[in-house]
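debug: dumping io for the single-chain case to check the tokenizer round-trip. Nothing else runs in this session.
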Amino acid sequence: MAISKDTIEKIRLSNSIDSVIREYLPDLKRVGRNLKACCPFHSEKTPSFVVSPEKEIFKCFSCNVAGDVFKFVMLLDNISWIEAVKKLAKKTNIEIQETKQDIIKMSEKTKLFDILESSAAFYNKCLLESPNAQKAREYIEKRGINCEAVNKFKIGFAPKGQFLQWVLKKGYKNDDLLKAGLITKTERGIFFECMSERVVFPIFDVQGRVVAFGGRTIADSEIKYLNTPETAVYSKSSNLYGLFQTLPELRKERKIIVLEGYMDVVIPQQFGIMGAVATLGTAFTQNHAKLVSRYSDRVTLLFDSDNAGRTAAQRSLEILVEDNIECRVSALPEHVDADEYLNQYGKESFLKLLEDSSKSAIGFMIERVYGGLSSDGRKNSPEIKAKAVSTLLDFVAKSSNSIIQREWIRDIAQHVDVDEEAVWREFKKKHRLKLRGYLQYGKNSSEQVVKVKKDKKTSMSLEENLLNLILNNRDYIEKTDSNCFEDVRCRKIFELTVLGLNTVGILNTLSEEDKNWFSELILNTIEYNDIREAFDIILKDIDISRLERKRQRIEKEILLMSDGKKEKDEKIFDEYKKLTALLKGSGR
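debug: decoded output
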């Protein structure tokens, strides 16, 4: 749905961020120019959630969630952006004009949600009341699922041939059911119910709407588990089973356990182990990682102990590490599922097993890679060690955090029993080759190189300091130009500022990762005794830093000349002398 920018801005201005957030967080207190409270998205005792009425944004400096008033309502109410806009518009009596096309599109999705919700209620009622569901009820009881869990997850049963009769009597058409993924059509034009003779597990999105179904056969079907296909309202790579049911706990604990099946989620949550979710018949994806990072700070992967399970864990780790999500891997005994273990040994034993078997991301990878390569007894072979280190360094490179990289390299050196400096040299060599590839063959190579080098900052760079000063003192925009910024992100923000975008306008053009960086940058307001003097000093320091980097580049060329690896060039020597003199005069 398209809403005009003017209407969105009108809704925003009519709903000040501090007044809206105060309705959810009555303990919001003023601290200087900003407001602070304990973050509603994770459990904390010391407030780290900051609201800036002036800049119209919020930011938690602990869990890194950030955004504008619409984003806050989205996250707290588990609704989409468009629904948040509509909610705030209704709150302030602002009418939103919808086009005929928007109305038709929304109407079609609304119809799908209605069909899916009604179907879930039908399946649930059949499980509880239908004489034909006795075998399904026995299966549920055998697996240890109680009535409370059945109601919480709206578990149901699809008796053979009954669903199609019931749903058509409700006034829905076969075409509607096909779009919802509830039936299939053969080449001969015969319709079949997807979930027939299966225990049915409704799949909810984060807003609590039924979007699809999973079914476990209780007949003699070769296909034990079956999911309904992707539709206009369902994407299996963007949903996690059980996430909606555990959202209230995630806001407090922010810890997720990723498992493999429906029962692996239902039983742990039934036992009070919150944060248990599962993928839906697909490998872990980038979209899953984004979903996980939105609601948790730490992820535990609990896959089967066989090779397929370990491979799935490794692939999931590689994706999570790229998104800088802290993750660990735990293991159950072979041929035992999470629900079976809990029903047999109970919650405390299960939690102890998780803790005792828990391995860090790099610990799991070292065991899998080095252990796998040295399984034939050639553990101390230099070739095996070199191959293991090379593979593990590819994994290390997936993290963009230099502190994590350093610690992981230390772990690799210790476990593989090789010199740490040698591992570092190998890592740097790989890194240089990767950068060279970007420079030679990559499009927009400067941006890609920045991405490779990017790291979480604990303090602001000179360019970030300059940007911070300009954003908080916009009179200085005219005294600056984009050439002051080599950092791609800083230059982009500056150029958006020159175009006249306000803080919220800039924020809404950025990726989630850059939103976190930008909101932290702008809320870290630096108070200067003399802004003009500070501005001049920062500009001078930026110029000096560039001259120093240029001198270092020339110094490398001179070293190559002195080693006879490059032809001597007097111009380069003269330029080096001039730069040295300039830097000496600057106090460097």
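debug: round-trip ok. The longest helix spans residues 531-562.
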